[in-house]
């Protein structure tokens, strides 16, 4: 099985593991499995081996938190010599002259950028497929791996790489993490916002362990203290399994995962009680407006005629949202006041991550817009509101369905600045209920 990122970096720093060997083994795994998994849009084989040799020769090797660790990056990332396609053939394809912030921070930490992972066009959907490939769930390749960080989740869950970068605008880290049995953290907007989707989109880590997620978060945020996972004192945790506003039914095993986690956290000394925020009805409209308008703004730099049919419909709707003034700050503020009210008496909210099971893998990009919207809405009932609020949230694996074998999970949400608390609670769940790290176990 692939080593954890923490173990790889420690061994490279100690001189007992060669980064070139680590990267070559990862490339071998990708070559053997990615034809089925479909995680990567571009594998940087030659470049990654060269970069691994450069890491081995660095004079600061002994201090690098990700020394020699092969990391997959989502195909929205500016990397010198590469272009970020955003899942589309309609956008600019000129290679970047320099690294963007994410790539630069990863390289500074000693990571090797092994490839760009597949995303749906403009990162709109919670299923990841493009004309040249489908990102599949390593636990059962007949199912989608989620989205929009579906390629990143598939790469980690298949054991191709120990870590991957993602971004999350409506659940795009947490949803694929939940579908693929990973730890996925959406930081607060104050920590790692990328400014997209009218402030809803942030960068975040996908990993097989809490410690790995913490070290990648610390690097992405350029905040070394985040790599230390605390052991939290007793906190007040409210739990809810009702989909906000819509109240759609949630599958039994996804609800049961929350009860299981509640029991484990209660045994760790935390106070658990049924409680949900008072979600305003306007909250759904507020986040949906941004989900429509964000990609429409991005598409200004794309050839509209070459976009997928579903994307053209989405962009048209987004432009209408902007013209009619539906991006309203007061809608977000109304929701923020309700969230602050809730977190005045609770430290954490726990919910299912998924409000429905994953969809089947397929060529969703060939289907009509509404055919994509309906299953997307069913899946993401618990996630997007926290992008609108800008609060941090983490997905933690809990087990596997007795029926389908797919992973189950919970979502933990904290007030702004609560990333370390979420990691600490996730570590307690990991210790009490260890999960299989990858589908290759």
TrEMBL record:
It comes from the Bacteria. It holds the Pfam family Amidase. This is Amidase. PANTHER family: GLUTAMYL-TRNA(GLN) AMIDOTRANSFERASE SUBUNIT A, MITOCHONDRIAL, TRANSAMIDASE. It comes from Amycolatopsis balhimycina DSM 5908. GO terms for molecular function: catalytic activity. InterPro entries: Amidase, Amidase_dom, AS_sf. Residues 22-423 form the Amidase domain. Belongs to the amidase family. Transmembrane segments: none annotated.
